[in-house]
Amino acid sequence: MFAATANLAALAGWVSHDAGRYGIAQRLWSYGTYAAGEAGQRDRGVEIVTRMSHQMIYLGHPQDALGLLGVAAKKATLPATKALVASQTGRVHAALGDQQQTERHLGDADELLAGGLGDDIPEWVAYFDAAEHAGARAVSARDLTGLGRSKQPASIHFEDALTLRKPGFGRVRVMDRVGLAAALFDEGEAEQGAAAAHQALDDAARIDSTLVASRLNTLLDAARPYETAAVDDVRTRARDLAAARPTTIAA
User: Fewer CB in a 10 Å sphere around the end CB: N or C, the chain?
Assistant: First the structure.
């Protein structure tokens, strides 16, 4: 019963987060970690904590995210959850502008993935794979570049994530496409960025998600320096979509 409750709380928390109901999401995830503990599933609780840390990054509290992940790292026992925590921790360090720690933790995740995560991966963490890690590398490169700590192109990692994504990850794939377009703009590739953006916006129009809306705002920021008809069209479409999908709803 507790194991089923933990699964439901994790799912309901993520749905709440993606709907902008952040306080509700945190309460559900907190209960999920309790239920996982009662079920004797430490790693299930660890996976839920990574969701909580993701929200802390999203809300602009990377130090809180780092604190959560520090606890999770001590409790993780499965290769899959260890890799997930390492990947997420690297992403948080990128948000904090620490390139050395970013590469250290992302490298740990690389090694765990290369060594294989095992044949009996629990369903609740099976989503974490090379594609998900490539996405973490992409946003890490984006954040470090934005903070002036690195010039590593994020676009190659977004392309890797898109290539590696399995079927059934529609929302995340849209986020990858929007992220790729924004990265290309940041890297001075206005023509390629506009082309990628139009494909991303076609897909984003079918997804109602505050996370996608947040990426649209990132795309708008990246497109700001360019004044061409193609980029103007991207801005108009992205603004219209972002306005139709507010990123915050009261809990």
Answer: N
- Decide: 42 and 77 in contact? Cβ < 8 Å: yes
Of residues 201, 178, 210, the one with CA closest to residue 55 = 210
Tokens 């509700």, located at residue: 24
Tell me, yes or no, whether 241 lies in a domain. yes
Q: Are residues 101 and 203 in the same domain?
A: no
Longest dimension (CA), the chain: 58
The boundaries of the domain holding residue 224 are: 167-251
Closest CA to 86 of 117, 41, 50: 50
Q: Summarize pLDDT for 15-25 with one digit per residue, the tens.
A: 999 988 999 99
Report d(CA 73, CA 69) in Å as an integer: 6
193 and 239 belong to one structural domain = yes
Whether 152 is covered by a domain: the verdict is no
pLDDT digits (tens, 9 = 90+) for 9-47: 999 999 999 988 999 999 999 999 999 999 999 999 999
